[in-house]
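Training component of the fellowship. As part of building independent skills, the fellow (R.M.) carried out the full modelling exercise for a liganded target. The chosen ligand was S-adenosylmethionine. The inputs are recorded below so that the supervisory panel can assess the work.
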Amino acid sequence: MNIEKAYNSWADQYDSNENKTRDLDRKATIETLSKYDFKNVLELGCGTGKNTIWLLKKASRIIGLDFSQNMLNIAAHKINDSRVHLMKADLTEDWKTENSFADLITSSLTLEHIKDLNHIFSQANKKLKKNGLFFISELHPCKQYSGSKAQFKMGNEIKELEVFTHHTSEYINNAVMNGFKLIELKEWFDNNSENETPRLISFTFKK
Ligand SMILES: C[S@@+](CC[C@H](N)C(=O)[O-])C[C@H]1O[C@@H](n2cnc3c(N)ncnc32)[C@H](O)[C@@H]1O
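Fellow's submitted model of the complex:
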């Protein structure tokens, strides 16, 4: 299913569906980013603003980019804060935000929908200040290899979204090629159960 249309259809249920991936991402984001100070944040694929609301605990300005108008509408309805600027934008194009603006870029559960990671890291390098951080949390490649992909229910039908499998090395190699170094890599398990396949992988890169 076309990704933008799918999120427009999913938007109404996104926050309320049972969704272990969404919930574990919240934990990964908070546990990782609590360690850092940041003021200016660029959030890629901000969706309904699940993480935007937490980022506001520290940030003085957040720009949230997303191409699903319905996801953005829900975020705008939930977040009524002058520090947040939500913009409809396709991340596969050039990001029309100020260069060297951000001290933190975050991206949760979005890059599985984007084929060319080189473009993402190259844009991220332009938008980040020196020493800025780029936090990524994604469905773990092992989950992707076994066929897991973003999906939601519409009536009795399961709608699967278009996804691209990204290997761990692909994230790291594209980051390094674009001037980043890896400072933290973590794998996240359902119920902390480390005998099972990890659900998520997270990377923190530094420019
Ligand atoms: C699974 S949701 C994640 C939302 C939010 N980050 C969270 O963790 O709850 C993925 C989001 O990425 C957005 N997205 C996917 N591909 C995109 C693209 N090429 N440009 C902009 N947004 C995109 C979708 O519209 C959707 O809101």
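The panel noted the following from the submitted structure. The chain has one domain: 3-206. The mean pLDDT is 95.
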